[in-house]
Design a protein that fits this description.
Number of strands: 9
Radius of gyration: 20 Å
Helix content: 10-25%
Strand content: over 45%
Distance between the termini: 64 Å
Strand order of the largest sheet: 1-2-3-4-5-6-7-8-9
Largest sheet: 9 strands, antiparallel
Oligomer: single chain
Shape: elongated
Length: 192
């Protein structure tokens, strides 16, 4: 078993073994960190889609992280998957030297801010938990503030079907005038 700590304070541990002669192996990797300050630029190891989202929404603040995955190397990585195709990092596992299986990630926002250039105002004071695995993303007790509006939501996103179910509530102590221009025309006319 090996472990390390990143400069940001993320504790990473790995255990497992490899058969070098056969070119196979399995490793369990886990990561945990509290009060991790998000960097301005996305970490280089993230997939392009997440890097693009990072650049678009400019997350800032602190999070807690818990993650785990099983890495399978060699011929075991090309064996028929017993789980959904979304469980592997590489879509073409027949030619990949490894696969990522049974992964889970939990992110807890403590004081997160999102700031998209097309938004009227940033969303700040975001708290709550996002849990993800190969099948779904769950949003639990996500709360935040934008202008005079405070909101809360819960929901799930099914990674395989694309179905998303969100529910929540918002309370405003004043009319969110800066967001008014972002409303669909019919709703804006109704509010006038």
């Amino acid at each position: 078993k090996s472990s390390a700590v990143t400069p940001e304070g993320l504790h990473i541990s790995a255990s497992g073994g490899a058969d070098l002669a056969a070119g196979t192996g399995q490793f369990a990797i886990s990561a945990e960190g509290k009060d991790i300050v998000l960097p301005k630029e996305s970490p280089a190891f993230l997939p392009e889609a997440i890097k693009d989202a990072w650049a678009t929404y400019k997350p800032a603040g602190k999070i807690e992280v818990t993650a785990s995955a099983k890495i399978v190397l060699g011929t075991a990585a090309t064996a028929p998957a017993t789980t959904s195709p979304a469980t592997t990092q590489n879509a073409d596992t027949t030619h990949s030297p490894f696969s990522v299986q049974d992964w889970t990630v939990s992110l807890t926002a403590n004081t997160l801010t999102l700031n998209n250039a097309t938004w009227s105002e940033a969303i700040h004071d975001i708290t709550g938990e996002l849990k993800a695995n190969a099948e779904k993303i769950t949003f639990e007790n996500i709360n935040g503030v934008t202008g005079p509006v405070a909101f809360g939501l819960n929901g799930t996103y099914d990674m395989l079907s694309g179905n998303c179910v969100l529910g929540g509530a918002a309370i405003a102590d004043a009319f969110p005038a800066k967001w008014y221009g972002k409303l669909p025309t019919g709703l804006a006319s109704f509010l006038d």
